[in-house]
Amino acid sequence: MNPNPKGETVTRRINKTIVYIVCIFLAVLSIFPFWIMFVNATRSTAEIQSGLSLLPSSHMMSNLRVLLDKSFDPIQGFLNSFIISSSATILTVYFSSLSAYGLVTYDWKLRKPFFTFILCVMMIPSQASAIGFYQFMYKIHWTNSFLPLILPAIAAPAVVFFMRQYLLATLSLEIVEAARVDGSGEFKTFNRIILPLMMPAVATQAIFAFVANWNNLFMPLILLTQKEKYTMPVMVSLLRGDIYKMEFGSIYMGLALTALPLFVVYFLLSRYIIAGVALGGVKE
Amino acid sequence: MRRKGVSYAKFGYIFTFPFVLAFLIFSLYPILYTAVIGFTDMQGLIPKPIHFLDNPFQNFKDLLFDNVSFRKSLINTGLLWIINFIPQIALALLLTAWFTNKRLNIKGQGAFKVLLYMPNIITAGTIAVLFSSLFAYPMGPMNSLFELMGWSDAPIFFLQDKTTARGIVAFIQFWMWYGNTMIILVAGVMGINPALFESAAIDGANGFQTFFRITLPSLRTILLFTLITSMIGGLTMFDIPQLFLAGGPDDSTLTTSMFIYGQAFKGSYMYNRAAAASMIMFVIAAVLSSLVFYLMRDRDAEKLKKAEKTYRKAAKASAAREV
């Protein structure tokens, strides 16, 4: 054992053990349901019903076949979700950075009221305007189009707020002045100089915007009625339907397929994601 | 020769214009439209001319006083939020106290954070369907586990019981969010001036005293912020209860968002009633948001402004006296 001159007391060692036990228990609790999901995706329905197993079986392909036979098209769903999420993410980070830059750099009359306005609209839930939004889209024949899921991303108040805090802390207006002296136009300054400087903030916000759009269920569920337009989360709701009533193996397979891309992204970027969550909380 | 400075003020308007335009079209107009629909008789799949009701508040009155389902949905939403938030904040605070305690010096915090936060990133719909499969009756993973551990003799029909169903929905919500809350709180503690902790240590404060006398009071703003964002998130809770049991059993997991969705898009096409319900939700969210806005206002700037105002007033008064 490691010698401890100051003497780590017995109680502290017991406390430490309790802390580790609780943390390991919580970590297992985080993994367990997903583990069961991936394992059961490889087991037949009969095996699933006969008991719990932590080891995979050999029915992955047959589960996949049953799943795909019943109008579940994970590749189409993946593509739809990807098109919507990536377009919305690009719009969100670009226009939010632009608005934040406008807020921080220029001295305009409505600057303060605009910031107050952003704070006010930050928390409006999309459900509150859903009925009017749906009727509006129905009238201009935009249901079953991806546009109503992408274009609203231009106005993302929470992201503008975050970007403003970031710029306030990092941007020195001398850079902007220097660019002006060199004859750079305002848009060019933003696109060529400021945006690259904002990359750490842009990357963080891009990850969160992408995941939020990817996981969005309410709006696509309302707007998309054609099966070939379904996004991943809407496809998940198919798994709840009667067509898979007793096909547990393929239900787990469907769930695993919808979760897999997120797991890959998460384990590649977890360090940035955790850091981003921490930043988002420090709102002062 | 000094040139007169060019005014760049117009770029402030130009750069924020796309945001404002998108907000007006995709947020403000739909909200106003929703509000208007709430006062009309708009129903049915086929669009027909809509009329304002004789009593414009009829839809709201019906919802609040005569609609059992809507009232149930409000109560459920509140209940589900409370039974997930209290354990969530309690566990997050406990973990924060442990992770930031230098004397405990917990190893592997990074890995724990990654694992505890993980459920938050996975599609809520996927998690809801996963849990409904895990709790399947008569044979599912949970029933197998209960049997294996000897906790039950006969299979349990978890999802038929109101309390269990609500408990599971609240648990999923808790399980998905405590990691997020914990990371925010740990970051908050890291932001506290270390001198405070040092002087507490010199004064001989123990772990409990340090946590309750220094850490918690310093986290006040972050805690309130977490509370209110969680309240608004809870108010709009949809994905998990919708895909877990679609509101059942006996409407015990029906939330307000699901009520709105059900009224408008699941066969009955009662757009006016759904719109009125949305407006009630909007008002609740607006009250909560203004609360957070009030809490997060810049206190120092406000004080400065006030001081400036009184100073200016005094200056004016003295100027007037001089005349």
TrEMBL record, chain A:
The family database entries (InterPro entries) matched by this protein are listed as: MetI-like (IPR000515), MetI-like_sf (IPR035906)
Q: Which domain of life is it from?
A: Bacteria
Keywords associated with the record: Cell membrane, Membrane, Sugar transport, Transmembrane, Transmembrane helix, Transport
Q: Which GO terms describe its biological process?
A: transmembrane transport
PROSITE patterns xrefs: ABC_TM1
Every ABC transmembrane type-1 domain range: 78-269
Protein name (database record): Multiple sugar transport system permease protein
Which organism is this protein's natural source? Paenibacillus typhae
UniProtKB/TrEMBL annotation, chain B:
- Record-linked InterPro entries: ABC_transporter_permease (IPR051393), MetI-like (IPR000515), MetI-like_sf (IPR035906)
Pfam families attached to this UniProt entry? BPD_transp_1 (PF00528)
Q: Name one GO cellular component term.
A: plasma membrane
Q: How does it sit in the membrane?
A: Multi-pass membrane protein
Q: Which UniProt keywords apply?
A: Cell membrane, Membrane, Sugar transport, Transmembrane, Transmembrane helix, Transport
Bilayer-crossing regions:
12-32, 79-99, 111-137, 175-197, 218-238, 274-296
An example GO BP is: transmembrane transport
Give compartment(s): Cell membrane
CDD domains this protein is in? TM_PBP2
Entry-linked Gene3D superfamilies: MetI-like
Residue ranges of domain ABC transmembrane type-1 in the record: 70-292
Please give the superkingdom of this protein's source: Bacteria
Give the record's family classification.
Belongs to the binding-protein-dependent transport system permease family.
Protein name, entry field: Multiple sugar transport system permease protein
**Which species does the entry assign this protein to?**
Paenibacillus typhae
